[in-house]
Design a protein that fits this description.
α3 crosses α5, α3 packs antiparallel against α6 and α5 crosses α6. The chain is mainly α and about 200 residues long. The N and C termini lie far apart (about 85 Å). The longest helix has 29 residues. It is globular and about 40 Å long. The N terminus is likely disordered.
Length: about 200
């Protein structure tokens, strides 16, 4: 009886040990499965990240950015022409003033929109420079080039139809030429794409 009792205890002990080993094995998760799961999560996160950064910009987005620059340039151009004409300045001095004011108002409009997003002035100023410099430069080059090449446009006064007609057409040509430039820049995360980061 004592031998049987010990034998029963020994069997119970073996069963208990076997059960524990089985439990440990069932709770073990293969390393490969864990690795694959982590890779899938990483891949999913990468896909989500890529979805937020499209490879190109739409024409409508580029047109809006160009129109934004055009507004500032037009204000500066007209104001510069009015001031230069009123002061009796020569064509070159008047054109330089108009270009300076075009950059000033172009930057100012962008700066105003960025400051509304709660960005500090120094950061907003650097963003405005990065976003608008090339766009305004191209626009001013085309705009003033058309006026300079237009016969009699440089000598026209504010009362002449030629002055306003040449200015309107030159700005329209500048818009058409600058829009693809802005599309290219936005598609690469530059230009007004930098501004859009502060509007979300």
């Amino acid at each position: 009886m004592q031998h049987d009792t010990h034998h029963g205890q020994h069997a119970d002990h073996m069963n208990h040990a076997g059960y524990s080993g089985h439990a440990d094995h069932s709770n073990h998760v293969p390393h490969a499965e864990n690795s694959g799961h982590a890779d899938n999560s990483s891949h999913s996160g990468h896909a989500t990240h890529a979805a937020h950064h499209p490879g190109g910009a739409s024409w409508s987005m580029a047109a809006r950015a160009t129109l934004h620059c055009l507004t500032g340039c037009a204000i500066g151009e007209i104001l510069g022409m009015v001031i230069g004409t009123a002061l009796g300045w020569g064509n070159m001095a008047t054109m330089v003033l108009a270009i300076v004011l075009a950059f000033f108002f172009g930057y100012s409009l962008t700066l105003r929109s960025i400051l509304k997003a709660g960005v500090d002035f120094r950061t907003a100023l650097s963003v405005a420079f990065a976003a608008d410099t090339l766009s305004i430069a191209v626009m001013e080059l085309i705009d003033n080039g058309v006026i300079a090449l237009w016969p009699g446009a440089m000598d026209a006064t504010l009362a002449d139809t030629l002055f306003w007609g040449a200015l309107a057409i030159s700005l329209a040509v500048a818009f058409v030429v600058t829009t693809p430039v802005n599309k290219w820049m936005i598609g690469r995360g530059k230009g007004h794409a930098v501004v859009h980061q502060y509007h979300h």
